[in-house]
Design a protein that fits this description.
heterodimer, A: alpha/beta, eight-stranded mixed sheet, 8 strands, B: mainly alpha, globular
Chain lengths: ~150, ~260
């Protein structure tokens, strides 16, 4: 087999490989949909984060606007400090409400942001003061049982 | 007493001969790295080997990937529809292929298709004293024969694995969307929402590069180390497949545990 034919075949082979990798990145992976690059970081304190994990989505009105960066435990106030990276394109007022929701009944947990009415917007390093904890199913059930029990007495 | 002594002697022998072979394989690996610069000066040697290991493996990779993807689609649908979440079939097929089956099955097929060919070729070259002849002419057989095959394997493996994953996803698509009737939009969008480029796709590529290094080193060493007889070469070829397969599966576990914890 002569050299040019060989080169051509190897070229085609490499090209198919590159196309497949690009296909995986664009069509199968999230390289196109997840173009959150420039972000600003805000923090939020929660009494209980439930099953929230780093890299969990942060949604505003259901649209992914950012990701959870890190979750640490504050040993002085005994609550969780969640750092959130929000896409620079999206601004939220200072009195935005942060809730921990669950996607579906058994799905992953995410942070939902509900915009408030403040004139000023959240900036790098700000803290979201109004938060609502994750719903812990055991707590709900026990509350329900206790209230049922007290009704019957 | 005598049998006991024999027993311990056998264990010691088995251990020391394996350690010796591992050391020799490592020496070969380092020699390959040293002579790589020499072999890159004649790049057409590497390209020739990419043709024989890569282009010639394309058919088997594409056909098996398509079938693996279709089987994953069928099996996934059968289980998922019990839970009423048959749209998640795209995620299942894509994650299984990109993370595990793509790199691993490609490496296993590569060991069988290309690794054996490398071992047999080099073993025969050694048996017919072509390698010694090269040395006599002051041509390093490592720069001329071994290193191009090594780099061809390392370059080829991730390309083949990417092709495998992509074709497998298409196979899953063919079963899920036109045949079973899963919604096309849900199929792709759920896949895109759950497959991460960095954590899933790049990790799969990293895996296949490691498998490529392991497979080709094993194949080259077995050929290089084979006794120069017909029986020796045939045994070396068998050992290539066995050792490569075990190495691939063991390495896969190690790499996966690193990637999942990290």
């Amino acid at each position: 087999m002569d050299k040019i034919k060989l080169d051509a075949w190897v070229g085609i082979f490499v090209a198919i490989g590159v196309v497949s990798l690009l296909g995986l990145a664009m069509k199968v992976g999230n390289l196109t949909s997840n173009d959150i690059r420039e972000t600003y970081m805000v923090t939020a304190n929660f009494e209980n984060i439930g099953g929230l994990k780093p890299r969990a989505p942060v949604k505003g009105a259901g649209v992914v606007v950012g990701r959870v960066n890190s979750i640490v435990f504050d040993t002085e106030a005994y609550h969780a400090i969640v750092s959130i990276d929000i896409d620079k394109r999206y601004v939220f007022p200072k009195d935005t409400f942060a809730n921990i929701y669950t996607a579906g009944l058994l799905g992953e947990q995410y942070i939902g942001l509900e915009a408030g009415g403040d004139e000023k917007n959240l900036e790098q390093g700000d803290r979201i003061t109004q938060t609502q904890d994750a719903v812990v199913l055991e707590k709900l059930i026990s509350q329900f049982l206790y209230s049922k029990a007290s009704e019957e007495e | 007493m005598k049998t006991l002594l024999n027993f311990f002697e056998k264990i010691g022998n088995a251990f020391s001969s394996r350690a010796l072979r591992l050391g020799a394989a490592t020496r070969l690996f380092i020699l390959i790295l040293i002579y790589s610069a020499d072999s890159f000066k004649r790049i057409h040697l590497t390209i020739r080997e990419i043709y024989f290991t890569g282009v010639m493996s394309l058919i088997i990779i594409i056909v098996s990937a398509f079938f693996v993807g279709m089987v994953l689609g069928l099996q996934g649908y059968y289980t998922l529809q019990k839970y009423g979440s048959s749209e998640a079939i795209g995620v299942l097929v894509a994650l299984a292929l990109v993370r595990e089956l793509g790199p691993v099955v490609t490496a296993l097929l590569f060991a069988g298709r290309a690794g054996t060919a490398i071992t047999a070729e080099i073993g025969l070259m050694k048996a017919t004293e072509q390698l010694s002849a090269m040395e006599m002419m002051a041509v390093s057989p490592i720069a001329r024969i071994i290193a191009p095959r090594f780099w061809a394997g390392v370059i080829t493996m991730p390309i083949l694995a990417s092709i495998f994953s992509m074709v497998g996803v298409l196979g899953g698509y063919v079963v899920a969307v036109p045949v079973i009737g899963v919604d096309e939009g849900a199929f792709w969008s759920q896949m895109q929402a759950n497959v991460d480029f960095r954590f899933d796709i790049i990790n799969g590529v990293i895996k296949s590069v490691v498998f490529g290094i392991a497979c080709t080193i094993i194949a080259l060493f077995e050929g290089f180390d084979a006794p120069p007889t017909a029986e020796g070469v045939s045994r070396a070829t068998t050992r290539t497949v066995v050792t490569s397969s075990l190495a691939i599966l063991a390495l896969d576990f190690v790499l996966t545990s690193f990637m999942i914890s990290g």
